[in-house]
Design goal:
There is one protein chain. Helix 1 packs across helix 14 and helix 13 crosses helix 15. By secondary structure, the protein is an alpha/beta fold. The chain has two domains: 180 residues, Rossmann fold (3-Layer(aba) Sandwich); 188 residues, Dihydrodipicolinate Reductase, domain 2. It has a nine-stranded mixed sheet. Strands 3-2-1-4-5-6 form a six-stranded parallel sheet, sandwiched between helices. Strand 13 and strand 14 form a beta hairpin. The protein is 37% helix and 21% strand. The longest helix is centred in the last third of the chain and has 20 residues. It binds nicotinamide-adenine-dinucleotide. Nicotinamide-adenine-dinucleotide binds next to helix 3 and helix 6.
Length: 401
Amino acid sequence: MKTPSFQSKFHRRAFLAGAAATTFTIVKPSLVCGSAANSAIALGMIGCGGRGNWIAKLFPANADYRWVACADYFQDRVDAFGSKNAVPADRRYTTLSCHKKLLESPVDAVVIESPPYFHPEHAAAAVEAGKHVFLAKPIAIDVPGCLSIAESGRKAASKNLVFLVDFQTRANELYREAARRVHAGDIGRIVCAESHYPWAGGTGGINGKTPEERMRYWHNTLEFCGDVIVEQDIHALDVATWFLHADPVAAVGRGGRTLRKVGNTWDHFSITYTFPNDVILTHSSIKMIPGCKDEIRCRVFGSDGMVGSDYYTEVWIRGRKPYEGGSVGNLYTTGAENNIVEFHRCITTRDYTNPTVAPSVRSNLTAVLGRMAAYSGKPVTWDEMLKTGEKLEPDLTGLKT
Ligand SMILES: NC(=O)c1ccc[n+]([C@@H]2O[C@H](COP(=O)([O-])OP(=O)(O)OC[C@H]3O[C@@H](n4cnc5c(N)ncnc54)[C@H](O)[C@@H]3O)[C@@H](O)[C@H]2O)c1
Protein backbone atom coordinates (compact mmCIF):
# COMPACT_ATOMS: atom_id res chain seq x y z
CA MET A 1 0.00 0.00 0.00
CA LYS A 2 1.41 3.40 -0.93
CA THR A 3 1.21 6.65 0.97
CA PRO A 4 1.48 10.11 -0.61
CA SER A 5 5.21 10.21 0.17
CA PHE A 6 6.06 7.62 -2.48
CA GLN A 7 3.86 8.34 -5.39
CA SER A 8 4.88 7.59 -8.94
CA LYS A 9 6.31 10.38 -11.04
CA PHE A 10 3.04 11.67 -12.50
CA HIS A 11 1.33 11.47 -9.16
CA ARG A 12 4.00 13.52 -7.51
CA ARG A 13 3.97 16.20 -10.20
CA ALA A 14 0.22 16.60 -10.00
CA PHE A 15 0.38 16.49 -6.24
CA LEU A 16 2.91 19.32 -6.15
CA ALA A 17 0.89 21.34 -8.67
CA GLY A 18 -2.22 20.92 -6.57
CA ALA A 19 -0.48 21.83 -3.36
CA ALA A 20 1.51 24.73 -4.77
CA ALA A 21 -0.58 27.56 -3.39
CA THR A 22 -0.38 26.65 0.29
CA THR A 23 1.77 24.59 2.61
CA PHE A 24 -0.07 22.03 4.70
CA THR A 25 1.14 19.86 7.54
CA ILE A 26 0.72 16.14 6.98
CA VAL A 27 -1.01 14.45 9.88
CA LYS A 28 -1.88 10.80 10.39
CA PRO A 29 -5.21 9.83 8.83
CA SER A 30 -6.24 8.46 12.23
CA LEU A 31 -6.13 12.00 13.62
CA VAL A 32 -8.33 13.49 10.92
CA CYS A 33 -10.66 10.54 10.36
CA GLY A 34 -13.18 8.91 12.62
CA SER A 35 -11.69 5.42 12.47
CA ALA A 36 -8.71 5.56 14.78
CA ALA A 37 -8.37 1.75 14.89
CA ASN A 38 -6.58 1.69 11.55
CA SER A 39 -4.64 4.55 10.01
CA ALA A 40 -5.93 3.82 6.50
CA ILE A 41 -8.81 6.02 5.39
CA ALA A 42 -12.02 3.96 5.67
CA LEU A 43 -14.04 4.20 2.45
CA GLY A 44 -17.62 3.47 1.51
CA MET A 45 -18.66 3.06 -2.11
CA ILE A 46 -22.08 4.38 -3.19
CA GLY A 47 -22.90 2.92 -6.60
CA CYS A 48 -21.22 -0.42 -7.30
CA GLY A 49 -21.51 -0.55 -11.09
CA GLY A 50 -18.96 -0.21 -13.87
CA ARG A 51 -17.08 2.86 -12.71
CA GLY A 52 -17.40 1.98 -9.01
CA ASN A 53 -15.82 -1.43 -9.54
CA TRP A 54 -13.17 -0.11 -11.88
CA ILE A 55 -12.04 2.75 -9.63
CA ALA A 56 -12.23 0.78 -6.35
CA LYS A 57 -8.94 -1.02 -6.87
CA LEU A 58 -7.12 2.26 -7.57
CA PHE A 59 -7.75 3.60 -4.06
CA PRO A 60 -5.73 1.09 -1.99
CA ALA A 61 -3.22 0.77 -4.85
CA ASN A 62 -2.35 4.46 -4.78
CA ALA A 63 -2.63 5.61 -1.16
CA ASP A 64 -3.53 4.39 2.30
CA TYR A 65 -7.21 3.49 1.91
CA ARG A 66 -9.35 0.47 2.77
CA TRP A 67 -12.90 -0.42 1.74
CA VAL A 68 -15.22 -0.98 4.69
CA ALA A 69 -18.74 -0.62 3.25
CA CYS A 70 -20.64 -0.49 -0.02
CA ALA A 71 -24.11 0.55 -1.17
CA ASP A 72 -26.10 0.00 -4.32
CA TYR A 73 -29.78 -0.28 -5.10
CA PHE A 74 -29.25 -3.85 -6.32
CA GLN A 75 -28.15 -6.78 -4.13
CA ASP A 76 -26.15 -8.45 -6.94
CA ARG A 77 -24.09 -5.28 -7.37
CA VAL A 78 -23.14 -4.90 -3.68
CA ASP A 79 -22.33 -8.59 -3.41
CA ALA A 80 -20.04 -8.53 -6.43
CA PHE A 81 -18.31 -5.38 -5.13
CA GLY A 82 -18.18 -6.68 -1.56
CA SER A 83 -16.57 -9.98 -2.54
CA LYS A 84 -13.90 -8.24 -4.61
CA ASN A 85 -13.07 -5.65 -1.97
CA ALA A 86 -13.41 -7.68 1.23
CA VAL A 87 -16.48 -5.80 2.47
CA PRO A 88 -18.32 -7.97 5.02
CA ALA A 89 -21.90 -8.99 4.18
CA ASP A 90 -23.38 -6.87 6.99
CA ARG A 91 -21.83 -3.72 5.50
CA ARG A 92 -23.38 -4.18 2.04
CA TYR A 93 -26.45 -1.95 1.81
CA THR A 94 -29.24 -1.99 -0.76
CA THR A 95 -32.48 -0.19 -1.83
CA LEU A 96 -32.96 3.53 -2.44
CA SER A 97 -31.91 4.34 1.12
CA CYS A 98 -28.66 2.32 0.87
CA HIS A 99 -26.53 5.45 1.11
CA LYS A 100 -28.16 6.44 4.43
CA LYS A 101 -27.36 3.06 5.96
CA LEU A 102 -23.81 3.25 4.63
CA LEU A 103 -23.37 6.69 6.19
CA GLU A 104 -24.18 5.20 9.61
CA SER A 105 -21.31 2.72 9.22
CA PRO A 106 -17.75 3.63 10.27
CA VAL A 107 -16.59 5.25 7.02
CA ASP A 108 -14.38 8.34 6.90
CA ALA A 109 -15.11 9.09 3.27
CA VAL A 110 -17.49 8.09 0.52
CA VAL A 111 -16.89 7.56 -3.18
CA ILE A 112 -20.05 8.37 -5.12
CA GLU A 113 -20.39 6.47 -8.40
CA SER A 114 -24.18 6.26 -8.62
CA PRO A 115 -26.28 7.56 -11.56
CA PRO A 116 -25.98 11.37 -11.83
CA TYR A 117 -29.59 12.09 -10.76
CA PHE A 118 -28.68 10.85 -7.26
CA HIS A 119 -25.40 12.75 -6.88
CA PRO A 120 -26.78 15.88 -5.16
CA GLU A 121 -28.79 13.81 -2.66
CA HIS A 122 -25.93 11.40 -1.97
CA ALA A 123 -23.35 14.17 -1.60
CA ALA A 124 -25.57 16.29 0.68
CA ALA A 125 -26.28 13.32 2.95
CA ALA A 126 -22.58 12.45 3.12
CA VAL A 127 -21.56 15.99 4.08
CA GLU A 128 -24.39 16.14 6.61
CA ALA A 129 -23.05 12.92 8.14
CA GLY A 130 -19.54 14.40 8.34
CA LYS A 131 -17.90 12.31 5.58
CA HIS A 132 -15.34 13.41 3.01
CA VAL A 133 -16.70 13.13 -0.54
CA PHE A 134 -15.08 11.89 -3.76
CA LEU A 135 -17.68 12.46 -6.49
CA ALA A 136 -17.91 11.25 -10.09
CA LYS A 137 -18.85 13.68 -12.84
CA PRO A 138 -21.38 14.96 -13.74
CA ILE A 139 -22.17 16.48 -10.37
CA ALA A 140 -25.89 16.79 -11.24
CA ILE A 141 -28.38 16.82 -14.12
CA ASP A 142 -30.22 20.11 -13.56
CA VAL A 143 -29.95 23.59 -12.04
CA PRO A 144 -31.25 22.70 -8.55
CA GLY A 145 -28.85 19.74 -8.47
CA CYS A 146 -25.86 21.92 -9.40
CA LEU A 147 -26.81 24.50 -6.78
CA SER A 148 -27.19 21.74 -4.22
CA ILE A 149 -23.65 20.52 -4.96
CA ALA A 150 -22.35 24.09 -4.65
CA GLU A 151 -24.01 24.26 -1.24
CA SER A 152 -22.63 20.86 -0.21
CA GLY A 153 -19.17 22.04 -1.23
CA ARG A 154 -19.50 25.17 0.92
CA LYS A 155 -20.85 23.14 3.82
CA ALA A 156 -18.02 20.62 3.47
CA ALA A 157 -15.42 23.39 3.74
CA SER A 158 -17.14 24.83 6.84
CA LYS A 159 -17.21 21.37 8.44
CA ASN A 160 -13.55 20.60 7.65
CA LEU A 161 -14.41 18.03 5.04
CA VAL A 162 -12.77 17.34 1.70
CA PHE A 163 -15.02 17.40 -1.38
CA LEU A 164 -13.34 16.42 -4.65
CA VAL A 165 -14.95 16.06 -8.09
CA ASP A 166 -13.18 13.51 -10.28
CA PHE A 167 -12.44 15.25 -13.57
CA GLN A 168 -9.34 13.55 -14.97
CA THR A 169 -8.26 16.50 -17.12
CA ARG A 170 -8.11 18.84 -14.13
CA ALA A 171 -5.69 16.43 -12.44
CA ASN A 172 -3.28 16.38 -15.37
CA GLU A 173 -0.21 18.56 -15.28
CA LEU A 174 -0.16 19.31 -19.02
CA TYR A 175 -3.75 20.55 -18.92
CA ARG A 176 -2.98 22.57 -15.80
CA GLU A 177 0.07 24.19 -17.35
CA ALA A 178 -1.82 25.01 -20.56
CA ALA A 179 -4.67 26.56 -18.54
CA ARG A 180 -2.19 28.60 -16.48
CA ARG A 181 -0.61 29.95 -19.67
CA VAL A 182 -3.95 30.77 -21.31
CA HIS A 183 -5.03 32.60 -18.16
CA ALA A 184 -1.69 34.45 -18.12
CA GLY A 185 -2.42 35.75 -21.63
CA ASP A 186 -0.07 33.55 -23.67
CA ILE A 187 -2.56 33.20 -26.55
CA GLY A 188 -3.51 36.86 -26.36
CA ARG A 189 -7.05 38.15 -26.54
CA ILE A 190 -9.41 35.20 -26.85
CA VAL A 191 -11.62 35.31 -29.93
CA CYS A 192 -13.42 31.99 -30.05
CA ALA A 193 -13.23 28.36 -29.02
CA GLU A 194 -14.49 24.96 -30.04
CA SER A 195 -15.15 21.78 -28.13
CA HIS A 196 -16.33 18.50 -29.50
CA TYR A 197 -16.92 14.95 -28.46
CA PRO A 198 -17.58 12.34 -31.14
CA TRP A 199 -17.91 8.80 -29.74
CA ALA A 200 -18.61 5.30 -31.02
CA GLY A 201 -20.25 4.39 -27.71
CA GLY A 202 -23.70 4.96 -26.30
CA THR A 203 -25.23 2.13 -28.31
CA GLY A 204 -26.17 -0.13 -25.38
CA GLY A 205 -29.22 -0.26 -23.16
CA ILE A 206 -32.82 -1.31 -23.49
CA ASN A 207 -36.17 0.43 -23.50
CA GLY A 208 -36.72 -0.08 -19.76
CA LYS A 209 -40.38 -0.91 -19.07
CA THR A 210 -40.23 -0.56 -15.28
CA PRO A 211 -38.58 2.11 -13.09
CA GLU A 212 -36.10 -0.58 -11.97
CA GLU A 213 -35.11 -1.43 -15.54
CA ARG A 214 -34.82 2.23 -16.44
CA MET A 215 -32.57 2.78 -13.42
CA ARG A 216 -30.34 -0.16 -14.35
CA TYR A 217 -30.02 1.36 -17.84
CA TRP A 218 -29.96 4.92 -16.59
CA HIS A 219 -27.64 6.13 -19.40
CA ASN A 220 -30.66 6.16 -21.77
CA THR A 221 -33.03 8.10 -19.54
CA LEU A 222 -32.87 11.89 -19.46
CA GLU A 223 -34.22 12.08 -15.91
CA PHE A 224 -31.37 9.89 -14.60
CA CYS A 225 -28.44 11.10 -16.71
CA GLY A 226 -29.28 14.63 -17.93
CA ASP A 227 -28.74 13.54 -21.58
CA VAL A 228 -25.35 13.03 -23.21
CA ILE A 229 -24.51 16.72 -23.27
CA VAL A 230 -24.46 16.61 -19.46
CA GLU A 231 -23.32 13.05 -18.81
CA GLN A 232 -20.64 12.74 -21.51
CA ASP A 233 -19.88 16.12 -23.07
CA ILE A 234 -19.21 17.56 -19.64
CA HIS A 235 -15.60 16.36 -20.10
CA ALA A 236 -15.18 18.69 -23.10
CA LEU A 237 -17.25 21.56 -21.72
CA ASP A 238 -15.35 21.46 -18.44
CA VAL A 239 -12.06 22.04 -20.28
CA ALA A 240 -13.65 24.80 -22.41
CA THR A 241 -15.01 26.70 -19.41
CA TRP A 242 -11.71 26.14 -17.58
CA PHE A 243 -9.68 27.70 -20.41
CA LEU A 244 -12.26 30.48 -20.96
CA HIS A 245 -12.51 31.08 -17.22
CA ALA A 246 -16.05 32.52 -17.34
CA ASP A 247 -19.72 31.61 -17.22
CA PRO A 248 -21.40 31.64 -20.63
CA VAL A 249 -23.85 34.49 -21.21
CA ALA A 250 -26.25 32.56 -23.46
CA ALA A 251 -26.59 29.56 -25.75
CA VAL A 252 -28.48 28.60 -28.87
CA GLY A 253 -28.47 25.13 -30.38
CA ARG A 254 -30.07 22.13 -32.01
CA GLY A 255 -29.71 18.38 -31.88
CA GLY A 256 -31.75 15.22 -32.01
CA ARG A 257 -32.01 11.42 -31.75
CA THR A 258 -31.56 10.12 -35.26
CA LEU A 259 -29.69 6.95 -34.36
CA ARG A 260 -30.82 6.16 -30.83
CA LYS A 261 -33.58 3.57 -30.65
CA VAL A 262 -34.02 3.29 -26.87
CA GLY A 263 -34.71 5.64 -23.99
CA ASN A 264 -35.41 9.34 -24.38
CA THR A 265 -31.96 10.91 -24.76
CA TRP A 266 -30.47 12.45 -27.91
CA ASP A 267 -27.45 11.31 -29.90
CA HIS A 268 -26.20 14.63 -31.25
CA PHE A 269 -26.02 18.26 -30.16
CA SER A 270 -24.67 21.38 -31.82
CA ILE A 271 -24.51 24.40 -29.52
CA THR A 272 -23.18 27.93 -29.91
CA TYR A 273 -22.39 29.62 -26.62
CA THR A 274 -21.55 33.27 -26.18
CA PHE A 275 -19.20 34.29 -23.38
CA PRO A 276 -18.29 37.76 -22.08
CA ASN A 277 -16.45 40.00 -24.58
CA ASP A 278 -18.30 38.32 -27.47
CA VAL A 279 -16.17 35.19 -27.22
CA ILE A 280 -17.93 32.32 -29.00
CA LEU A 281 -17.69 28.63 -28.11
CA THR A 282 -19.05 26.13 -30.62
CA HIS A 283 -19.71 22.72 -29.14
CA SER A 284 -20.58 19.61 -31.13
CA SER A 285 -21.42 16.16 -29.89
CA ILE A 286 -22.21 12.99 -31.79
CA LYS A 287 -22.48 9.48 -30.33
CA MET A 288 -23.05 5.94 -31.66
CA ILE A 289 -20.97 6.31 -34.86
CA PRO A 290 -19.44 2.94 -35.85
CA GLY A 291 -15.67 3.18 -36.27
CA CYS A 292 -15.58 6.63 -34.71
CA LYS A 293 -12.34 7.33 -32.89
CA ASP A 294 -13.04 8.86 -29.48
CA GLU A 295 -12.02 12.48 -29.18
CA ILE A 296 -12.71 14.91 -26.36
CA ARG A 297 -11.26 18.04 -27.83
CA CYS A 298 -11.11 21.66 -26.86
CA ARG A 299 -9.31 24.39 -28.79
CA VAL A 300 -9.24 28.06 -27.92
CA PHE A 301 -8.11 30.68 -30.47
CA GLY A 302 -6.57 34.01 -29.49
CA SER A 303 -4.82 37.01 -31.04
CA ASP A 304 -1.40 35.48 -30.23
CA GLY A 305 -1.98 31.78 -30.72
CA MET A 306 -4.13 28.80 -29.86
CA VAL A 307 -4.32 26.04 -27.29
CA GLY A 308 -5.22 22.52 -28.34
CA SER A 309 -6.23 19.66 -26.06
CA ASP A 310 -7.65 16.19 -26.37
CA TYR A 311 -8.38 13.77 -23.52
CA TYR A 312 -6.96 10.90 -25.63
CA THR A 313 -3.87 12.44 -27.21
CA GLU A 314 -2.13 15.66 -26.31
CA VAL A 315 -2.10 19.21 -25.02
CA TRP A 316 -0.12 22.09 -26.57
CA ILE A 317 -0.04 25.81 -27.33
CA ARG A 318 1.02 27.16 -30.73
CA GLY A 319 1.68 30.80 -31.60
CA ARG A 320 3.87 33.60 -30.30
CA LYS A 321 4.43 31.90 -26.93
CA PRO A 322 4.33 28.20 -27.73
CA TYR A 323 4.10 25.44 -25.14
CA GLU A 324 5.25 22.04 -26.31
CA GLY A 325 3.00 20.23 -23.84
CA GLY A 326 2.96 16.56 -24.75
CA SER A 327 1.07 13.31 -24.73
CA VAL A 328 -1.42 12.91 -21.88
CA GLY A 329 -0.99 9.12 -22.00
CA ASN A 330 -3.72 7.05 -20.41
CA LEU A 331 -5.55 9.96 -18.81
CA TYR A 332 -8.58 7.84 -17.99
CA THR A 333 -6.49 5.96 -15.43
CA THR A 334 -3.81 8.44 -14.44
CA GLY A 335 -6.30 11.27 -13.98
CA ALA A 336 -8.36 9.17 -11.58
CA GLU A 337 -5.21 8.03 -9.78
CA ASN A 338 -4.03 11.61 -9.38
CA ASN A 339 -7.40 12.57 -7.92
CA ILE A 340 -7.27 9.61 -5.53
CA VAL A 341 -3.82 10.65 -4.32
CA GLU A 342 -4.93 14.27 -4.05
CA PHE A 343 -8.03 13.27 -2.06
CA HIS A 344 -5.76 11.45 0.39
CA ARG A 345 -3.39 14.41 0.59
CA CYS A 346 -6.25 16.83 1.26
CA ILE A 347 -7.66 14.65 4.05
CA THR A 348 -4.31 14.02 5.71
CA THR A 349 -3.07 17.61 5.44
CA ARG A 350 -6.43 19.13 6.40
CA ASP A 351 -6.71 20.99 3.11
CA TYR A 352 -10.39 21.83 2.89
CA THR A 353 -10.14 24.38 0.09
CA ASN A 354 -12.02 22.00 -2.26
CA PRO A 355 -11.01 23.76 -5.49
CA THR A 356 -12.75 21.30 -7.82
CA VAL A 357 -16.28 22.18 -6.68
CA ALA A 358 -16.85 25.66 -8.16
CA PRO A 359 -15.48 24.85 -11.65
CA SER A 360 -17.54 21.66 -11.74
CA VAL A 361 -20.69 23.63 -10.93
CA ARG A 362 -19.84 26.09 -13.70
CA SER A 363 -19.21 23.48 -16.39
CA ASN A 364 -22.21 21.40 -15.36
CA LEU A 365 -24.50 24.44 -15.57
CA THR A 366 -22.95 25.21 -18.97
CA ALA A 367 -23.96 21.73 -20.16
CA VAL A 368 -27.49 22.21 -18.76
CA LEU A 369 -27.72 25.56 -20.57
CA GLY A 370 -26.76 23.90 -23.86
CA ARG A 371 -29.38 21.19 -23.34
CA MET A 372 -32.10 23.76 -22.57
CA ALA A 373 -31.22 25.77 -25.67
CA ALA A 374 -31.23 22.69 -27.91
CA TYR A 375 -34.45 21.24 -26.49
CA SER A 376 -36.29 24.56 -26.79
CA GLY A 377 -34.77 25.50 -30.16
CA LYS A 378 -34.52 29.06 -28.81
CA PRO A 379 -31.71 31.16 -27.33
CA VAL A 380 -31.49 30.79 -23.56
CA THR A 381 -29.47 33.10 -21.34
CA TRP A 382 -27.54 31.98 -18.27
CA ASP A 383 -29.81 34.12 -16.09
CA GLU A 384 -32.97 32.65 -17.62
CA MET A 385 -31.63 29.15 -17.03
CA LEU A 386 -30.90 29.92 -13.37
CA LYS A 387 -34.36 31.46 -12.94
CA THR A 388 -36.29 28.53 -14.40
CA GLY A 389 -34.71 26.19 -11.87
CA GLU A 390 -36.11 23.26 -13.87
CA LYS A 391 -35.82 19.98 -11.95
CA LEU A 392 -35.77 16.61 -13.70
CA GLU A 393 -37.41 13.77 -11.75
CA PRO A 394 -37.31 10.13 -12.83
CA ASP A 395 -40.24 7.89 -12.01
CA LEU A 396 -39.14 5.93 -8.93
CA THR A 397 -42.59 4.44 -8.30
CA GLY A 398 -42.44 0.95 -6.86
CA LEU A 399 -38.70 0.95 -6.19
CA LYS A 400 -37.65 -0.52 -2.85
CA THR A 401 -37.07 2.16 -0.28
N1 LIG B 1 -14.26 9.17 -16.88
C1 LIG B 1 -15.12 9.32 -15.89
O1 LIG B 1 -14.97 10.22 -15.08
C2 LIG B 1 -16.29 8.40 -15.76
C3 LIG B 1 -16.34 7.22 -16.51
C4 LIG B 1 -17.45 6.39 -16.34
C5 LIG B 1 -18.49 6.74 -15.50
N2 LIG B 1 -18.41 7.93 -14.82
C6 LIG B 1 -19.53 8.34 -13.94
O2 LIG B 1 -19.66 7.42 -12.89
C7 LIG B 1 -21.03 7.32 -12.48
C8 LIG B 1 -21.47 5.86 -12.57
O3 LIG B 1 -21.40 5.43 -13.90
P1 LIG B 1 -21.29 3.86 -14.28
O4 LIG B 1 -20.90 3.82 -15.69
O5 LIG B 1 -20.47 3.17 -13.27
O6 LIG B 1 -22.82 3.39 -14.16
P2 LIG B 1 -23.31 1.94 -13.71
O7 LIG B 1 -24.75 1.83 -14.08
O8 LIG B 1 -22.39 0.90 -14.24
O9 LIG B 1 -23.19 2.02 -12.13
C9 LIG B 1 -24.05 2.80 -11.34
C10 LIG B 1 -24.46 1.96 -10.15
O10 LIG B 1 -25.26 2.76 -9.27
C11 LIG B 1 -26.31 1.94 -8.80
N3 LIG B 1 -27.41 2.75 -8.32
C12 LIG B 1 -28.54 3.15 -8.95
N4 LIG B 1 -29.30 3.89 -8.15
C13 LIG B 1 -28.67 3.95 -6.95
C14 LIG B 1 -28.97 4.57 -5.72
N5 LIG B 1 -30.07 5.30 -5.55
N6 LIG B 1 -28.09 4.41 -4.73
C15 LIG B 1 -26.96 3.69 -4.89
N7 LIG B 1 -26.62 3.08 -6.04
C16 LIG B 1 -27.47 3.23 -7.06
C17 LIG B 1 -26.67 1.07 -9.99
O11 LIG B 1 -27.39 -0.08 -9.58
C18 LIG B 1 -25.30 0.75 -10.54
O12 LIG B 1 -24.77 -0.42 -9.98
C19 LIG B 1 -21.79 8.26 -13.41
O13 LIG B 1 -21.95 9.51 -12.82
C20 LIG B 1 -20.88 8.37 -14.62
O14 LIG B 1 -21.06 9.57 -15.34
C21 LIG B 1 -17.33 8.74 -14.90
